[in-house]
Every structure is written in C-alpha cells, then in structure tokens.
Specification:
It is built from 24 helices and 35 strands. The structure holds beta-D-glucopyranose (BGC) (2 copies).
Length: 868
C-alpha cells in the first residue's frame, strides 16, 4: 500500500540542501522550519467508564521472600521518631538532576534523585563518566549532612540503565529486550544483569529502572522493544533472572552487596496491553488476562527479591494505575507479597483524577511510596507537606511509605555506605566497555538475531567473498542501539559517541582481516566492481516511549527496497539486515532479498553479525543462528493484535520461528498487499506529532543558507536566528517551541530529499491542520506555506493573526490545501504533485510558537485560508 498511497518520487532537483535553502532566502524568506513529527495518532480510546473488577482471591498468594528482621525494624522506628515532618515528606520525593541541586536535596531532604532520559551532569548527555561520579558524591554529601539536627538519610540515585549503563559514553550496550527475548536464554540474562550492575556502580548510581516486565501485545506500541516477549511465559522466565543478575542472589551475601544494586520491576501493571498500543493508554483486558499476561513477570521478580516496583502510566478500565489502590496495595502488597516500595513514573501521579503535578495525596493513599516528580518536586513537596499537616494525607500512611523506603535503603546497606566514589567499583572506568563485558554483549547480539529467510543457502558467506555493504544502518551504532541510548529518544548519536562500540560494517571489516575476503561500504549502493553479495542494513530510526507509537506496521520507507531491487536486477545476491524495535510489515523487502535477518536493536556490538555471516577460512561455521522470534511477525501492516495462542493465529512467521544453517527451507514469495487503505494514516499525512517530526519528515531550521535538522531536545540554527526546544504540554516533550529571534524559516521536509503528491489530497478537501499556541510575537510579517522544490513555494500571511493570538490558549488551525494554490506569495509554478515541504513557517522577526502537531486532516467547518 505504501507504494501507491504515498507517491514518493525523487524530487526534481533537491541537489544539495544548501541550494534549496538558498532558493528560499533568495525568495526573501529568512528562515524556514519544516515540522514533521507524529506520535501515535489515531483515536485515543477515551478511558472507559467501567472500572475493572478485581477479586483478590483470584490472585496468587505469595509471601515476601525476605523476612523483616527485628534490628532493621527497630532502626526504622528510631529514624521515624527522629525525622521531622519535612524530612518525611522529602524522603518520598524523587527529583531529576536537571531540575535539582545538591543543596536543594539537603534543604528539602529529598530521598532520591534520578536522571531522566535526557538528563545528565552539566546537562551534557555525553559527559565524561567522572562527571557522573562527581555529581553522585555531591548529592550524597548534601543528603548526609547532619548539621542543624538533620537526620541525614543518604539519597539514592536511579537511572534508566535499560540495556546496559545506557546513559554513559563508552558503556557496554546490550540488545534491547525484544532481541534478548529471541535469545531465549535466562542464564545470559543473568550475566547481562551482573555486568550492567557493575558498569552502573562505576559511575556511582544506586539503582536502575529496569527490568521492564511489559508483555507487549500490540506492536504499534513504541515501547515494544522494551518487552522481552509477547508471551508471558518467557517474560516470567526472564524476570527472576534479570533481578538476580542486577541485585545478586537472594539468600547469599551477594544480594544487594557491593557488586550489585537495586532493580525496578516496571511498569505495574498492564503497560503492554493498552488499546491500540497507545502509550500510557487504557488497558481493557479482563482480570484474568491482566493477571496471567500482564502481571506474569511480577511474582517471579518478587520471589527473586525485587525491592522496587514502578507504577505504570496506563489505566486499567479507565482507572489510572497511580491511583489504583486495589492493584498497588491489595494485589501487589497483599497478595503478591511485595515488601519493597512503589515508585511512581515520571509525573505519573498527575494523571490521577483530581491530582496535578503539584499535588496528589490520592496516589500515596493508593499505595505509591515515592513520587517521581522530576521537575515538579518543589511544588509537590510544599503541597504534600501542607496535606500532611492538614491530615489530607494521613500521617500513618506517610510513615508507612517512609518506612518502606528506609527498609530498602537499609537492606541495600545504603545507610552504612561510604560516599559513591569510595565504593568497590567507583571510578574503575576501564570496566565501561571492558572486553569481557563486550564479549557477553556480542554473544547476546548473536543470539538475538533471527534468520527469517535464507533461500538457496546464500548464508553463510564463503571465505574470500567480495562484499558490498550499504543502507543507513550499516555504519551507524546509534541506529543499532535504538532509544534510551545516551539520550532519551536515542537521537543525535554518532559513532564517535560509542568509543568501545562497533558498527556492523566495522565488525565485518575486522572479521575479514586476513581472510582474503573484502568489504566495501557504499552509502547509496553504488559500486566500482561487482560484488559477490550485497548486505543492506536498514530499519527504524531510534525512538522511545510514546514517540515511537505508530498507526500501523508498514515499515513505510522504500529506500532500502529500491537498493535491493537494483541489486537483484544486477544479479547480485542480497542479504537484508533489518534493525527495528518490533516486527514490521516488510514483505516487499523480503521478496527482494535472498536472505533476511531480523536483527532487532543489537546494541554496541555490531561485530556479532560478522560472527554469524562469515564462514571460517576452512569453510566451517563459527556461529549458527539460534535466535527465535519472541514476537509473532505480521502478515499484513494493519497492526491488528497478533499473538501466539490467539484463536485465529495467522502470522507470517510464527512465534518461535527462526532458521539455522541446518534448515534448508525456502521462503516463497509473500503477498505485497499491506492490507491498509487509510492513506490519511500514513506518514504522507503526518508531519509533526507530539512536537517531533515523523519519519521520513524532518524538522529543519533554516537560517541564512544553512539547514539544521532538529535532532536534539534543544537545537539552534547555524547562525542562531531560530531555536527549536522540546517542551512539555500533556506529556513530556510532546511539543516543540520554535523561538525565532530574527528572520528565519522552519520547515518539515522529506528526510530523503523526496517529494509527495498532494493533488488528490487537495482535491479531496484535505487541510493542513496545526495545533499550536503563540507564546510571543512582535507582529512582524510571517508566513505559512508549502514548498515544492527549488524556488517553488506558496505562502499565506499570518503575522497579524499570530500577534492577536499571543497567550496561553492552544489553537487548532485548519488551512485547506486548496488555499495554497491561490496563495499570493509565491515563487515558481506551484506543483502540488511535488511537495518537498508540506509545512514551512517563515518569519521576518521575533516570534515564539509552541507546536504540537502538523498533519493533513479533512477540512474543518471553520477552516479559513489563514489562522483565525
Ligand atoms: C518511563 C520510565 C522511566 C522514567 C524515568 C518514564 O517516562 O516510563 O520507564 O523509568 O521515565 O526516566
Ligand atoms: C522520560 C524521561 C525523559 C523525559 C524528558 C520522560 O517521559 O521518561 O526519562 O528524560 O521524559 O522530558
């Protein structure tokens, strides 16, 4: 369907980006910004009214595997007697290191800090590991200060080390969980946990927000890759192993000892089962499915000694988990025997009805023991203190929450610890990316790759083969690693940010040394002399959380397909290597390749692929494929739920499928009917969603003759005329603030320098729909338009309207595409069939816009040719 609906044709003369920008400048527009980002659109199901019913005795009755001991309990009682109310309230609040200073941790007695996905020492996501350790010491010293009678309880620092110590430059990064699921090897998972713990201890953190025990049932969910499997049985089998690896074996001195740290079982409960796979959405499963599918990882995690559970963003039958006492307390604590503490998710308490980021006694009463209040901690602290004083937050419950946190801190020895830099592994930077660690990551990557197709036994490749490698994933460690890598969404990472990593191409190069074989890299698939085989590495660009939600499962990017076709026409056998966070519909690519590997997100060890692909000089195979799908591979692109055990189970490749070199199976040509017919839902019509350009669209800042692609949370144009900054509205970073200081443009442009045909859309009455607000405007001329290549554009004046709209209100503007055909401000002949930027905003002077969304939608009743 992608072939027909979104007619992507090479744009006539994209030549260089600079020439395109210059053309606009010549046309008199100082800056242009293109937006093209979207997060799971579609109809967010309104949270159902019916509250799910829980029958407690339907849930397993477990007892905490850790008995409470008298000495610890006495110590907790003494501490509670000593602590002031302020100290107790501070203890249950966790702030983000980007929004709190060590001195504030001391003044407000905060019990914990975290670094969110985009937070780092000195706000530098590529900071040297020593900066992390230094900051850990500073927080520690502040929290343990006993001056003025402070109790001085050590702060604990949590981080999202979800596939290795993934915030740290140089760390060993393992495959994301979806790949680990394919490895089907709990012992390996335990070793990964052990290594991850050590690498975290190097930089002084106490706690990781892992493992994710989600059982992802709808692969449109942008967090599918954080899930080991759609199969609860596998998640259950891994849960204990990963907890044990991170924390050490319960009942031995290793448990929470110097080689280990605190893990988090998350997100309780139902995160992987929201309707339509919408992140933070509503889970409508039955109680039995909630228990048997979504909660499957928790009993084994608790049995292995898990001490922290993170409450989930999602609802169950309309009730937000952060406020669900039945599940957080009666089930988790009462039935499953959980004896640690429940931490909230990022401002997740604000989702509870009646709550806001700044106040939510209801979450605490429901069973939340620690608020994750990254940037909102101060207001929350003040309100919670007032609520504790007024009795709105019962003191007994506050004391209980504090006790639970203290109990865990005591169990992990934190109260008797030395400062972070004096601990066993602190500052041993040589452990980050240590060869022994990388060897395990390489083994994991090898075991995680699944061979879907190997017709005519093309693989393994003969010694001495002349290999061509191409595709945008071939030499791209950032793409191999996916989201939650150095940055939150995993964007902006370059190979140099992985000093110990290896791209797939580099791995092949190293492996071929001395073998007689050669590998040539090419960015567009061209070659000088004909190769024996072409390897095309392609796939999804990194994403995380809701920004990775999709309306369907069509891979939707044809560039690799075109190359595969060309190789085939030239008689060159092809190996497709697909990097992705989930199974996607890639039937056209499957048909055009002789061998096809689902590599998922293998992490820093790209060399794993060479281990599998290359025969040794004597013709033997070093490593065979052993990966088996832990997610069913879809037959069409609709994104309909497809899970092993379904009544009508018709996958393309079933759960557990995966070829080895022993299998001589030929995969026949597969249907190229994607099963989609909603053109309005593909990315030919979604340009910017939740403040981010939707691939293949890019948000570009155009300043003078230079284009800067927005890749980071804050991106400044080349000469500083315009800045794009991610900002929060309903969720974190779900909008972008365009801060124009002087004449410049922003544009949402096709990332592959192609164009789209909007003729039919225009005829069918579609409109460019914008959701935005105007934070400031000096009233200077400003325009919104479409661009159709070099010196080809149409603009509508919006300067005066923007000035009038300055304020806090959000607006939705519907500008019929037809308006642009009639637009006054133009360069070149409008070519609606050749749109290179479906949204351009040009301003002659200062203006500040906050944009949530830009997409095509049917013209609304009140649409005008402008903003109103
Ligand atoms: C995510 C969690 C994560 C937390 C801290 C949240 O948005 O849902 O999985 O641990 O942020 O970064
Ligand atoms: C993520 C954080 C991230 C933040 C950015 C949250 O949803 O979980 O880790 O840093 O958004 O605003």
């Amino acid at each position: 369907m992608r072939k027909n609906s979104l007619k992507i044709a090479p744009s006539r003369k994209p030549k260089s980006r600079v020439s395109l920008a210059l053309a606009w400048v010549l046309a008199g527009y100082a800056a242009m910004v293109t937006l093209g980002h979207a997060a799971g659109s579609g109809s967010a199901p309104s949270d159902g009214q019916v509250q799910g019913q829980i029958q407690l005795n339907n849930w397993p009755q477990q007892h905490s595997p850790l008995p409470r001991d008298a000495a610890t309990e006495a110590r907790i009682t003494r501490l509670l007697q000593q602590m002031t109310l302020e100290e107790k309230v501070g203890q249950i609040i966790q702030a983000d290191i980007d929004s709190v200073t060590p001195d504030e941790v001391r003044r407000y007695h905060l019990g914990s800090v975290l670094n969110g996905g985009n937070s780092a020492p000195n706000q530098d996501n590529r900071a040297h590991p020593r900066e992390w350790l230094k900051l850990a010491d500073a927080f520690w010293a502040a929290s343990t200060d006993r001056q003025g009678g402070r109790t001085g309880i050590p702060v604990m620092w949590g981080t999202d080390a979800v596939h290795g110590q993934s915030k740290i430059v140089g760390a060993t990064l393992f495959p994301h969980n979806i790949g680990l699921g394919a490895a089907n090897d709990p012992a390996l998972i335990r070793r990964i946990g052990e290594i991850t713990a050590k690498e975290i201890l190097v930089t002084g953190q106490d706690w990781t927000f892992a493992p994710t025990l989600a059982v992802a049932r709808n692969d449109r969910w942008g967090r599918s890759y954080e899930s080991y499997s759609e199969n609860p049985e596998l998640v259950g089998r891994y849960a204990g192993a990963i907890i044990e690896g991170l924390q050490g074996k319960l009942g031995t001195p290793d448990y929470l000892g110097p080689d280990h740290l605190l893990a988090t079982a998350k997100h309780f409960v139902g995160d992987g089962g929201t309707a339509d796979g919408i992140d933070t959405g509503n889970n409508l499963s039955s109680e039995a499915a909630l228990r048997d599918i979504h909660a499957a990882g928790y009993p084994p995690a608790i049995a292995a000694g898990a001490q922290v559970v993170m409450a989930s963003f999602n609802s169950w039958h309309g009730q937000k988990m952060h406020g669900n006492k039945t599940l957080l307390t009666d089930v988790l604590v009462g039935r499953l025997g959980f004896d640690g503490f429940v931490v909230g998710d990022w401002n997740g308490h604000a989702l509870v009805p009646g709550c806001s980021e700044n106040q939510c006694a209801a979450a605490v009463t429901a069973g939340l023991d620690m608020f994750m209040a990254p940037n909102t901690w101060k207001g929350l602290y003040e309100t919670t203190l007032a609520q504790a004083r007024s009795g709105e937050l019962p003191l007994a419950r506050l004391d209980e929450a504090v006790s639970r946190i203290l109990r865990v801190k005591i169990r992990m020895g934190l109260l008797d610890q030395v400062p972070p830099s004096q601990r066993k592994y602190a500052g041993k930077y040589e452990l980050l990316g240590a060869p022994a660690h990388r060897a395990v990551a390489r083994e994991a990557a090898r075991k995680s790759m699944v061979l879907l197709k190997n017709n005519r036994a093309l693989l393994p490749l003969k010694p001495g083969s002349k290999i061509l490698i191409t595709g945008d994933g071939a030499d791209n460690i950032g793409k191999q690693c996916g989201g939650w890598t150095l940055t939150w969404q995993g964007l902006g990472n370059r190979n140099e940010h992985f000093p110990h990593g290896e791209s797939i191409y580099q791995g092949l190069q190293h492996a071929l040394i001395g073998s007689g074989g050669t590998v040539q890299w090419s960015d567009d698939g061209s070659y000088d002399s004909k190769p024996d085989v072409a390897i095309v590495v392609f796939g999804e660009d990194p994403y995380a959380e809701f920004q990775g939600d999709r309306p369907h499962l069509d891979f939707s990017d044809d560039s690799a397909l075109q190359m595969l076709k060309r190789f085939r026409q030239a008689g060159i056998p092809t190996v497709a290597v697909f990097l992705s966070g989930r199974p996607l519909w890639v039937n056209p690519e499957l048909n055009q390749s002789d061998a096809f590997i689902a590599a998922f997100l293998p992490g820093t060890e790209g060399g794993a692929l060479a281990d599998l692909l290359l025969q040794k000089p004597d013709g033997s195979v070093g490593y065979d494929f052993s990966g088996k799908l832990s997610f069913s591979w879809p037959n069409d692109a609709t994104g309909r739920e497809l899970n092993v055990g379904d009544a009508d189970y018709q996958p393309l490749f079933a759960y557990g499928y995966g070829l080895s070199y022993q299998d001589k199976r030929t995969v026949a040509t597969v249907s190229e009917n994607a099963g989609l017919n909603l053109t309005s839902n593909d990315n030919g019509s979604r340009y910017l969603i939740a403040g981010k350009a939707v691939a293949p669209w890019q948000l570009q800042l155009i300043d003078g003759d230079k284009i800067t692609v927005v890749e980071n949370a804050t991106q400044v144009s080349s000469l500083g005329a315009v800045t794009a900054r991610a900002a929060d509205r309903k969720q974190q970073e779900d909008t972008v603030i365009i801060d124009v200081r002087s004449k410049s443009l922003i544009a949402l442009s096709h990332g592959q320098d192609r164009s789209i045909d909007l003729v039919e859309n225009s005829n069918a009455g579609m409109a460019l729909e914008l959701e935005y607000r105007v934070l400031a405007s000096a009233g200077q001329p400003a325009r919104i338009g479409l661009a159709c290549g070099t010196s080809c554009s149409r603009f509508i004046e919006v300067g005066p309207a923007l000035k009038q709209q300055v304020g806090t209100d959000w607006h939705t503007a519907s500008i019929p595409l037809a308006c642009f055909a009639k637009a006054q401000q133009e360069t070149g002949n409008m070519k609606m069939n050749h749109i290179t930027s479906p949204f351009v905003f040009a301003s002659d002077g200062a203006v500040q816009l906050q944009l949530a969304r830009v997409q095509l939608k049917p013209v609304s009743a009140d649409a005008v040719c402008g903003l109103k």
